Amino acid sequence: MDNPILLNFVIVTIFSRMLAIGVNQSFRQLTFLWRRPELLLRSLLAVIVLVPLVVGLLLWLFDLPPAVATGLAVLAAAPGAPLTTKRAQMAGGDPTYASSLQLTLALLAVVITPLTLATFYALFALSTEPLHPFQVALQVAEVTFLPVIIGLLTQIFAPRFTERIRMFVQVSANVLFTLLFVGLLALVVLKPDFRSMLNLGWRPAAAMIIMAGSSLAIGDLLGGLSPENRSVLAIASIARNVGLALFIAALSNSGQQLIPTILTYMILGALLAVPYSVWSKRRMTLRGSK
Predict the structure, then answer these.
(1) What's the CA gap between 184 and 125, in Å, rounded?
(2) Mean pLDDT throughout 60-67?
(3) Torsion-angle region of residue 88: left (phi > 0), alpha (psi -120 to 50) or beta?
(4) First to last CA, the chain
(5) Backbone dihedral region of 64: left (phi > 0), alpha (psi from -120 to 50 degrees) or beta?
(6) List of residues 6+ apart from 87 with CB closer than 8 A
(7) Which residues neighbour 202 within 8 Å (Cβ) at sequence distance 6 or greater?
(8) Most buried residue among 115, 232, 248, 271 by CB atoms closer than 10 A?
């Protein structure tokens, strides 16, 4: 991305959000899902295999503008949204499962993101230049894996210090993400070349709706018999890591073209998750009354 200030702000924002995950979630929360291999496999199948597969089918079926296709591919390669736990709880999901899945996806992003991106670049003509998988892995490790590990180690070796900074780190991460989102929206609205990108047309809009709806359905179906787990996996599938997606876009000189697609999907995904959350909580209530 040709704006170094924006690039640095994206890096600081995603680093802070991953650090907040590290200082707020324990090793026990992390290993909750690891001690349940069947649920772990179903979760990873949904989030890092089937959702990217749906996106691949959409890129093959729809004649999408290159910037939109690239934006969707980058989103598919960016699992583990930092707000997954909160959004899953709003849908009535199990917070322990949500925390473990969120942290697991954040750690696996170092491997999953470059592999998924390499696959999309090999199969489709995308608008940005191909990024070397090792370059992506190294960059993702610096802004996701490293801060999470720092946070977890701080809990072990400096628990009192962690207690003192936990709220500050979380609030700072939320403020930075809000400022980044508002700033990007302002950039899209104020700059004519960005505004023109918002006229996506019916094909991109349909592709995003299908991607979001399919992600919810995949997660709900693979979540198992427990409605609490189904809601967690559905939210984790639809909620792609927008901060990581923006960071990946920032690695390319033409990455600014992807911002409208990334932000549009973020808003659309959040809107579709609301009625699902309401329905999911109602499903749990009806089940509990039987």
Answers:
(1) 26
(2) 90
(3) alpha
(4) 55
(5) beta
(6) 81, 235, 239, 273, 277
(7) none
(8) 232
Structure tokens at 155: 């809990």
Cα angle at 53 between 52 and 57, to 5 degrees? 115
CA-to-CA distance for 11 and 14, rounded, in angstroms?
5
What is the domain partition of the chain in residue ranges? Answer: 4-278
pLDDT over threshold 60, residue 196: no
Burial class (CB in 10 A: 0-12, 13-18, 19+), 136: buried
Collect contacts of 190-199 with beta carbons under 8 A, ≥24 apart.
194/256, 194/259, 194/260, 197/67, 197/257, 197/259, 197/260, 197/261, 198/260, 198/264
Say which residue the tokens 């309401």 belong to: 278
CATH of domain 4-278: 1.20.1530.20
Task: Give me the sign of the Cα torsion angle 65, 68, 74, 76.
Answer: negative
Q: Return the residue matching tokens 């995950």.
A: 21
91-123 pLDDT per residue, tens: 788 888 988 898 888 888 888 999 999 999 999
Q: What are phi and psi of 211, to 5 degrees?
A: -60, -50
d(Cα 150, Cα 19) in Å, to the nearest integer? 7
Under a CB-based contact definition with an 8 Å cutoff, are residues 127 and 249 in contact? Answer: no
Can you give 120-181 as a three-state secondary structure string?
HHHHCCCCCCCCCHHHHHHHHHHHHHHHHHHHHHHHHHCHHHHHHHHHHHHHHHHHHHHHHH
- 97 within 8 A of 232, measured Cβ to Cβ: yes
